[in-house]
Amino acid sequence: MTDSALGGLLLTSVDFSHCKKLTHNALRRLQGMLLTSVNFNCCNKLTNGALSYLKGMPLTSVDFCRCEKLTDRALGYLKGMPLTSVNLSGCYRLTDDALSHLQGMPLTSVNFSSCYRLTDHALSYLKGMNLTSVKFSWCRELTDDALRYLEGMPLTSVNFASCDELTDKTLGYLKKMKLISINFRACDLTDDMLDSLKEMPLTSVDFTLCDKLSSQTHTYLRKIPEHRF
After folding, report:
1. Is-contact 208 229, C-beta < 8 A?
2. CA distance 199 to 60
């Protein structure tokens, strides 16, 4: 599909994922529509200016996964929208400042997996939000201290797979939460995390490649309905 296919439509939701020929002209044709959801996953020709055409829309969900030309400036065009879900995974040019544009939004779900430049400071912009799901897998600059910004959130699902600076201390920040799904694949965890896990109503865990976990911990993990280690 090309840009010319988008004119003259009355829509509230569009999904053009993997339409790799689309450019910023495609979003220009959406300008003025009352869209609540857009998905441009893997439309990797899109640049920051494309998002300017979304301004004024009542968007609640945006997916620009692997739109690799997007930078912090792109999120500035989303500022002030009533977004509840944002997926910018694989947008590796983003830095901590990108998340500052999310402040004030009624977000419940964010996905910044494989945004390699993010540090602990990025999560400080999420502090106080009512998030239920966060994904920061492969954000390898994150340390345990990043997780303190999540305290008090109504989180049910977290994914920090391959954030290999994370240790048992991370689970301590999460232990009071009502988490049902956690993914800490390839993190630097030991059996000392077990006490924190026991306080969570977990139904799904992934500790694959957490090589310091003993058979004792594996025995406990097997009691969880969906488990990988």
Report:
1. yes
2. 33
Query: Which residue type, as a one-letter code, is found at position 13?
Result: S
Residue-level length of the chain: 229
* C-alpha span between 75 and 67 (Å, rounded): 12
Tens-place pLDDT, residues 193-222:
999 999 999 999 999 999 999 999 999 999
N-terminal to C-terminal alpha carbon distance within the chain: 42
Map out the domains of the chain as residue ranges.
Answer: 30-228
The tens digit of pLDDT for each residue in 152-192 reads: 999 999 999 999 999 999 999 999 999 999 999 999 999 99
Architecture in CATH of 30-228? Alpha-Beta Horseshoe (3.80)
| Residues 115/137, Cβ–Cβ less than 8 Å | no
**Measuring CA to CA, which residue among 55, 77, 57, 81 is closest to residue 67?**
77
User: What's the pLDDT tens digit per position in 41-70?
Assistant: 999 999 999 999 999 999 999 999 999 999
Burial class (CB in 10 A: 0-12, 13-18, 19+), 155: buried
The model's pTM is 0.94
